[in-house]
Specification:
CATH class of the largest domain: Alpha Beta
CATH architecture of the largest domain: 3-Layer(aba) Sandwich
Strand content: 15-25%
Number of strands: 21
Structural class: alpha/beta
CATH topology of the largest domain: UDP-N-acetylmuramoyl-L-alanine:D-glutamate ligase
Protein name: Bifunctional NAD(P)H-hydrate repair enzyme
Number of helices: 19
Largest sheet: 10 strands, mixed
Distance between the termini: 19 Å
Cofactor: K(+); Mg(2+)
Pfam families: Carb_kinase, YjeF_N
Catalytic activity: (6R)-NADPHX = (6S)-NADPHX; (6S)-NADHX + ADP = AMP + phosphate + NADH + H(+); (6S)-NADPHX + ADP = AMP + phosphate + NADPH + H(+); (6R)-NADHX = (6S)-NADHX
CATH superfamily of the largest domain: Ribokinase
Subunit structure: Homotetramer.
Helix content: 40-55%
C-alpha cells in the first residue's frame, strides 16, 4: 500500500486524468461509492445521517456519498458549508445529479446557529466531507466553528479521506482538527496518518481503492506500508540441507554489571528469530546472569572498568553482523569502544540504545563507513542525534528520517506507534503492526535482536529490517489477542511469541 503527501496525491489525480484518460467525474464517483459502502456498515435503519460538505474534491465525494445513501432510502440531511459559487467542476456535476435524484442540499449561510446545532445533535452519524487534503494555513469560519461543534458531540463521526483540518505539514492545534471515529482514506494512505501527534484524529482507518493506476504510484512516491504481502514474499524459507553456518553468525556487544537485562533480551530475541550462531560480548560481571537465560549463546569476555565495558580492540572477523549499544552505559570508555568499532569493522552494524548516545557528537563516523549501518532510535534519541526538539521529529517524521538517512548513508529505523524504515537512498516503509503493550522498557532491545538475526539470514537488508518490525509488532498483537493485555505484556513475552508469528507467515505462503 502506497503512502503519499498531498502534493503527490494531486499529481496522482492529474496523471490518472490527463495521461491515463480517467475522467475526474468517474474517479469522484468511485471514491464516493467506495466510502458510502463502508459507511453503510455503521448505519442502523432508524439512524439519521448528517453529511457536511465543503468545496473541492472532498465536497464532491460527499455529494456522491449522499446520493448513494439517499437512493437506498436512508434518512439524511445534507448541509453545504460554502456558497454555491464555490462548488465548481466535478463537484458541481455531482451536486446537480444528487439534486436531480430529489435530495435537498441545505446551505449553511441560510441557517441560524440553533438550527445548525440542532441538526448536529439530532444526527446519529456525522459524515465529514468538508476540507480534505487541500487545507493550508489556519482554519477559517465556518469550518473552525463546525469542527468544534463536531468534536463537542458524542455522535459517531466518519471522515472522508482525512479528518477536516488535518494538516499536510504535520502541525496544527488539536482543537482545529475533526476527531473522527472512522476515516475512509481515498486511493492511498496519507503521510499524516503516521504522525504520532495526528494519528489519533483518524480513529480506525481503512484505505479504499478507486481505480488509480499502480504504475503512477511507483513513479511518484518512495513510501509504502510494509504489509503481509511483503513479508510473505521476502521472509526466507529454510533449505532442508542448511546448517547453523547457513543462517549467520552474529555478535551482540553491550551489557554491564547494573544492566544485564537489555542485552539478555536482545540475545534471546535474536536466537528466537533464527540466527545460526550467536556470541554475546560483555563484561565478566554480566556473563553469568545472561548465560543463565541464553544457554544457546557463546560468550566473549570484554575488559571492564567499574562493571562497564572499557576501551579494548575486539576481533570481529568471522561474524556476519554486529549489534551494539544496549546496557553499555554512557561512560567515556564505552563510548570510545563504540566509536572505535564503527571506524574499524567492515561488518553491518546495528546501533541501538546507549550506542546511539555514544555517536551523537561523531556522526561523521557513519558517513565514512563502507559497510551498512543500521540505527534504531525512538523520537527522543532521534532528536538527540539531530540536536532538535522531540516535537520537530514527531511533527515531520518522514522528512526527518529521510534527510538523516541520506545525509549519513544509514538505514534508519525511527521507532514509534508507526515505525518508519528508511534506506540510504531515501526509500521508506511504514510498519503498522504492534499495540500499546510494546510501550515498555525492553521492547527496543527485543526489536534490535530480531533485526540483527534477520540481517544475518538470506534476505535483502531493507526486507530484513522491515520484516523484523512486522514480526515484533505481530507478536505483541498475537499475545494481546490470546492471553495478555496491553497492561501486563512484557518484552520477554514478545520474545516467546516470535516463533508463532514466523510459523504462521511461513506456512501461509
Amino acid at each position: 500500500m502506497y503512502i503519499v503527501t498531498a502534493t503527490e496525491m494531486y499529481e496522482m489525480d492529474r496523471l490518472a486524468m490527463e495521461e491515463k484518460g480517467l475522467d475526474g467525474k468517474i474517479l469522484m464517483e468511485n471514491a464516493g461509492q467506495a466510502v458510502a459502502k463502508k459507511i453503510k456498515s455503521h448505519i442502523k435503519t432508524e439512524d439519521i445521517i448528517l453529511i457536511l460538505i465543503g468545496s473541492g474534491n472532498n465536497g464532491g465525494d460527499g455529494y456522491v456519498i449522499a446520493r448513494y445513501l439517499y437512493n437506498q432510502g436512508y434518512s439524511l440531511r445534507i448541509i453545504q458549508l460554502v456558497p454555491n459559487e464555490k462548488i465548481t467542476g466535478d463537484a458541481a456535476y455531482h451536486k446537480h445529479v444528487l439534486e436531480q435524484f430529489g435530495a435537498e442540499v441545505e446551505l449553511f449561510e441560510q441557517m441560524e446557529r440553533k438550527q445548525l446545532e440542532g441538526a448536529i445533535h439530532q444526527a446519529d452519524i456525522l459524515v465529514d466531507a468538508m476540507l480534505g487534503i487541500g487545507i493550508k494555513g489556519s482554519i477559517r469560519s465556518p469550518f473552525k466553528e463546525m469542527i468544534k461543534l463536531i468534536n463537542d458531540t458524542k455522535n459517531l463521526t466518519i471522515a472522508v479521506d482525512v479528518p477536516s483540518g488535518m494538516p499536510m505539514d504535520g502541525t496544527r492545534a488539536h482543537d482545529q482538527i475533526v476527531r473522527a471515529d472512522y476515516t475512509y482514506v481515498i486511493g492511498a494512505a496519507k503521510t499524516s496518518m503516521f504522525h504520532a501527534n495526528l494519528a489519533p484524529n483518524f480513529g480506525h482507518w481503512e484505505v479504499v481503492e478507486i481505480g488509480l493506476p499502480t504504475e503512477a504510484f511507483q513513479q511518484l512516491t518512495n513510501k509504502q506500508i510494509w504489509g503481509l504481502n511483503f513479508v510473505q514474499a521476502t521472509l526466507p524459507k529454510r533449505s532442508p540441507f542448511s546448517h547453523k553456518g547457513t543462517h549467520g553468525k552474529g555478535v551482540i556487544i553491550g551489557g554491564s554489571l547494573e544492566m544485564p537485562g537489555s542485552i539478555t533480551m536482545a540475545a534471546k530475541a535474536a536466537l528466537r528469530s533464527g540466527i545460526g550462531l550467536l556470541t554475546v560480548a560483555t563484561v565478566q560481571e554480566a556473563i553469568s546472569s545472561i548465560a543463565a537465560q541464553c544457554t544457546e549463546a557463546t560468550f566473549h569476555r570484554l575488559a571492564g572498568e567499574h562493571g562497564t565495558i572499557a576501551k579494548q580492540p575486539m576481533d570481529l572477523s568471522g561474524y556476519d553482523v554486529c549489534l551494539i549499544g544496549m546496557g553499555m552505559g554512557r561512560s567515556a570508555q564505552s563510548s570510545t569502544f563504540t566509536k572505535q568499532l564503527l571506524e574499524e569493522t567492515e561488518l553491518p552494524v546495528v546501533v541501538d540504545a546507549d550506542g546511539l548516545n555514544h555517536i551523537k557528537d561523531h556522526l561523521e563516523l557513519l558517513s565514512k563507513r563502507k559497510a551498512p549501518t543500521i540505527l534504531t532510535p525512538h523520537p527522543g534519541e532521534m532528536a538527540t542525534l539531530l540536536k532538535v526538539s522531540v516535537a520537530e521529529v514527531v511533527n515531520h517524521p518522514f522528512q526527518v528520517a529521510k534527510d538523516f538517512a541520506k545525509a549519513y548513508g544509514v538505514y534508519l529505523v525511527l521507532k514509534g506507534t508507526y515505525t518508519i524504515i528508511t534506506t540510504p537512498e531515501g526509500k521508506q516503509w511504514v510498519n503498522t503492526t504492534g499495540n500499546a503493550g510494546l510501550a515498555k522498557g525492553g521492547s527496543g532491545d527485543t526489536l534490535a535482536g530480531i533485526i540483527m538475526a534477520m540481517i544475518a539470514q538470506n534476505q535483502s537488508l531493507p526486507a530484513a529490517i522491515a520484516n523484523s518490525c512486522f514480526i515484533h509488532g505481530k507478536a505483541a498483537e498475537l499475545l494481546v489477542e490470546q492471553s495478555h493485555s496491553s497492561y501486563d505484556l512484557l518484552a520477554t513475552d514478545v520474545i516467546e511469541a516470535i516463533p508463532s508469528v514466523i510459523r504462521t507467515f511461513l506456512s501461509e505462503r
